[in-house]
Amino acid sequence: MTKQAGTETRERLIEAAAETLRTEGYAGTSARTIARAAGVNSALVFYHFGGVDPLLLAALDRSSEQRMATYRQAVAGARTLEELVAVATEIYRADLEGGHITLFSELVGAGIARPELRAEIVKRSEPWIDFVEQTLDRVIGGSPLAKLLPPRDLAYAAITYYLGVNLFTHLDADRSRTEALFTLAERLAPRAKLLTMRLPRRRGETTAT
What we know:
This protein is mainly alpha-helical. 77% of the residues lie in helices and 0% in strands. It has helices spanning 3-24, 31-38, 43-49, 52-76, 81-98, 100-113, 115-140, 144-148, 151-169, 176-191. Helix 1 (3-24) packs across helix 3, helix 4 (52-76) packs parallel to helix 7 and helix 5 runs antiparallel to helix 10. It is elongated, with a radius of gyration of 20 Å.
């Protein structure tokens, strides 16, 4: 197998793994079902990735990488908590429609019974926690709200909330209850405006470089 052919096969397997996990769930995903969707021999799953779980994690990595690039641009223009909530709502809906919620939720569910898989998922959540923390710090850093709820703590809460919403989405057929949570956040954000006003620096304080 040439290097180009090997790269193409890996790409097909990653795409097939993501689609199979979304449509069949973790329980219905195997080397055989993935290979069939990719149009290759199932032995290539083990040749290129060493097993099904590493391939599924590669599919999650690909999805996360693409989403991170997109969402960094999406939140870059948010200057207020209201704008940030609006962007977060759109991100959730995009993840839902794009199938990432299903992909992520299936792996989280599988990780409950597979500690080695759980550890890999936890490791992959760290860049997202950092991303959320940096975004929150940019929007509310230096405000009374940030003093009350530090951006790092809020980032953990946001990721936990997002995971809970992801899992509950599978139970909420018409999405009404999960949508209601975002509607509530949109109503609360304007009321927190005073808490997000940055405090003036005290005499003698300098801006960090």
